[in-house]
Give the backbone structure.
Amino acid sequence: MKSNKTEELIKKINPPPRIKTIADKILSGERINEREGISLFLETDLGLLGSLANAVREKRHGDNTYFNRNFHIEPTNICIYNCKFCSYVRKINTEGAWEYSIDDILEVVRKYKGQSVTEVHIVGGVHPGRDLHYYGEMIRRIKEIRPEIHVKAFTAVELEFMIKKAKMSLEDGLRRLKEYGLDSIPGGGAEIFAPEIRREICDEKASTDNWLLIHETAHRIGIPSNATMLYGHIENYEHRIDHLSRLRDLQDKTMGFNTFIPLKYRKANNHLSYIGEVNAVEDLKNFAVSRLFLDNFPHIKAYWPSIGRQTAQLSLSFGVDDIDGTIDDSTKIYSMAGAEDKNPKMTTEDLVELVKEVNRIPIERDTLYNHLKVY
Ligand code: V47
Ligand code: SF4
């Protein structure tokens, strides 16, 4: 029924033949190519783009809108790298640097005793002194306290370093972490894959090939993961489509990605501040094109601490079916980069309300998208 509405809209708008062909392809479930993806960004009316992305979203998920109850731990912001967009990184013994011990972290985990959180999300800087066994031990001890909790931890960038430091092969390292209790891998560190942009914004850390290889290896041994894209800085639409295309190719091979999370570049206190930030229209366009291009990704997630609550709410009509950032999102990545919410917290009730306000159905899920409760 919704696609009929989209067809009516197409008739009304009467887009150029090229856009009409792309829209027809999408509505009949055919895959679009890179050139068509770029045309969606450059030439498509925002209303039509939203309507197409919404048709695809509703075909997959109806009105279902997922969220989970998680909390974040950021063990350290000390990092050997110097990504130009990062507002969070500090060097050892400088003002604002933190490094929590395993005991400090276990204290945080104990704080959630009795609360029905299902996931802990752990990411941080690449600390020169900590290897796979240090972090493995951290996971093992977290699970001693909360055996049932899902541990989603470490970006491919952190994994590359900690595995190398432990002098293990990539596959052996990931297997060892799985034995320690690692359940899945978050999507960070992907930034933009196109080499000419990666060289400019984060030259030193894991290369595009390594990021993709780490996720491919993880999927092969049964560790699912997410993927992200940092957008709205010096990249253009071709770079974004190239990024999505590399992810779509890997997903064809492994089907190990759960969700794609576009992350909006925030400008405060970093070396790219002069660029400024893109507006909400760009955010919505980006969600919609991601939904339309990534036809083999089950979910598209809006991470509200990066875009704000209102854009997250609007994104539910532009292809997004999942909202992240509940309970106690103590991440400092966005508060230090200038997000409006200095202490991004949203209770389950707030989030349920936000979803219901736009007539969608809030569904609490676990990390692997098993339904836990319909609100
Ligand atoms: O890789 C750093 C980004 C990422 C800035 O998998 C910035 O469920 C905007 O990956 N402006 C880490 N973004 C966070 C991340 C994530 C977040 C939520 C959910 C999941 C998931 C993963 O944060 C980094 C980088 O792309 N980032 N600095 C900044 N100034
Ligand atoms: Fe380090 Fe990550 Fe910041 Fe890059 S984005 S400097 S890898 S903490």
Remarks:
- The pocket of V47 (ligand 1) is lined by residues 85-87, 123, 155, 186-189, 191, 226, 228, 230, 261, 263, 265-266, 270, 303, 306, 324, 333, 337 (CB under 6 Å).
- Residues 242 and 290 are 12 Å apart (CA to CA).
- The chain has a mean pLDDT of 94.
